[in-house]
Every structure is written in structure tokens, then in C-alpha cells.
Amino acid sequence: MIKKRTGELIVTNEKQNALLKKLYGTAAGRCLLKVLTLPIVSEAVGAYMDSPLSKPLIEPFIRKNGIDTSDYIMRDFRSYNQFFTRRIKPEKRPIDRVPAHLISPCDAKLSVYRIDGRSIFRIKGSYYRVSDLLKNDFLARRFEGGHCFIFRLEVDDYHRYCYIDSGTKSDNTFIKGELHTVNPIALKHYNIYKRNSREYTVLHTDNFGDVAQIEVGAMLVGRICNRHSVHTFVRGEEKGKFEFGGSTVVLLFERDTVTPDSDLLKNTANGFETVVKLGEKIGISAR
């Protein structure tokens, strides 16, 4: 279930959910998933979405998802991926510049979890280890007692993401894997944060300490496109983009560095994701 920050409930795509339940909830579906989640399949789909052959998909997608194109910088896109990674008009996503305010790095459906003393967080009754996500036990231990923010992007979301604060960053670490959907339906059957292809870096931020940011690929996402390796960044600067498909950004915070907004914690505890937009306040520095 999904909520807006006003408390309004959003009806999810029931047709899509029914298909995913068949894929993930049946033996035949899981056999098909072995093919669909291979990186080579996503690479092939990505190549098609990069080509002019994909251009006729743009207009039907706009109509089906009710996208307000006046919010975006529109041009004569040569391919579906050019449209999919279109830029939004800056005034449509103002960046909260208050230094102590934690901002959302992207448009997404957000859940917030506490990381316990064993570097574990719990989603819908299942336990997930930070060390599985990072493939780095030493780094994972730094986030014991902190918070995990999971930003799930759907296909109609804006698919570029920004830096949450000013600071510096380390190089990116890419972890090979499969490409399952990031829809919560998949979490009942697979630990997608352990199995999916992903890329992470450590952000040394001015106001929130050291933060691990992980971009998680998803079914039929051809590429995670980060703009920088080692880099000095400013709040709101574009960090990267996802090409075709729904994807996820995960932020890991150390103990006593951030206080999430109370509505986000309440909604997560009640089983709801919360709609957030790039640049808006979602917490406050606890330092």
C-alpha cells in the first residue's frame, strides 16, 4: 500500500501486481524468472530501448501513466530511453537548502527501517543483512543502530537522483547479480537486496556523517548510470540516473546522525510506503 504525505491512499497497478504474483508465486513463473532476471536479457532490452525502434513506445506510455509532460524538458527524443531519462524542470523539484534538513534523493515510494545491533533490518516479516547488501562486513558494522531508507522508483517516476547534502565521495563499487523486480511482491520470495545487481559508494556528508548510497537495478533495467567516481559534490547536484524500468535507491545512516520525519516511520510501521519527491525534506540531522 502507498500513501501520499497528505495521508491520501494511492491505488496500485493491480494488473501489474497480478502478473508479478503469478511470476513469483508459482513454480512455472519462477522458472520463467530464471530467464527474465538474467543481466543479458536486460542488456538486450536496454539495447532496444536505446534504438530508434523504441520511439513509438513513448506516446502510449505517456497516455497510460497520465504523465504531465509540462513538468519536463521535452524535445524530439530519438529513443524510449532518451524519453525515460528526460530531465524535469528545476522549478518542479525545488531543493530544500536548510543544511540540517535531510532531502529525498529522488522521486519514489519510501520506507524507513531501524538497523539493529546485528546490522539487520526487517521488511514485511523478513530479515535483511546490511552486509549482504554491501558485500562488506566491516563497512556494514558502521551502520549498526542507524537507519535504512529504501526509495522504490516505479516506471512513471522521475528516474534521475541527486546528492542529499554537500561533501565528498569515494569511488563506486559495482556488485554483479540478477535483476528481479523491486516491487514488494518479490520480497516475499527473494532477497532482492542480496541478489540484484547494484552499485554503492560512501558519501562523506557535511551534516549527516558518512552515508552509504546504493543504487539497486531491477527487472529489465539496462544500466545504473552514476556520473562521478571520486568527487566533491553539493546538495541537489545530480548524482546519476536509471535507464528503463523501476529501480531502488537505498541510503544507510550511522547511529545518531539522522532523525526521520515521524510520518515516514509511522507509515512504514503500518505497512505503507510514502510518496516523496526529489529535494523535499524527509528528516533532520541528529548531530
In short:
With 287 residues, this protein is an alpha+beta fold.
Explain what this protein looks like in three dimensions.
25% of the residues lie in helices and 29% in strands. It is built from ten helices and 19 strands. Helix 1 (14-25) crosses helix 2. It starts with a strand and ends with a strand. The strands form four sheets. Strands 1, 2, 4, 7, 9, 10, 11, 12, 14, 16 and 18 form an eleven-stranded mixed sheet that branches. The chain is of the alpha+beta class. It has one domain.
Comma- or semicolon-separated keywords:
287 residues; alpha+beta; eleven-stranded mixed β-sheet; three-stranded antiparallel β-sheet; 10 helices; globular
Count of individual beta strands: 19
- Termini separation comes to 33 Å
The low-confidence runs, each spanning 5 or more residues with pLDDT under 50, are none
Assign an overall shape. Answer: globular
Layout of SSEs?
Layout: E1 2-3, E2 9-10, H1 14-25, H2 27-36, H3 39-50, H4 58-65, H5 80-84, E3 101-103, E4 108-114, E5 120-123, E6 126-129, H6 130-134, H7 137-141, E7 147-153, E8 160-162, E9 167-169, E10 173-175, H8 184-187, H9 192-195, E11 198-205, E12 210-216, E13 224-226, E14 231-233, E15 238-242, E16 247-253, E17 258-260, H10 262-269, E18 273-276, E19 281-285
Parallel strand pairs: 1-18
Antiparallel strand pairs: 1-2, 3-19, 4-7, 4-18, 5-6, 7-16, 8-15, 9-11, 9-14, 10-11, 11-12, 12-16, 13-15, 17-19
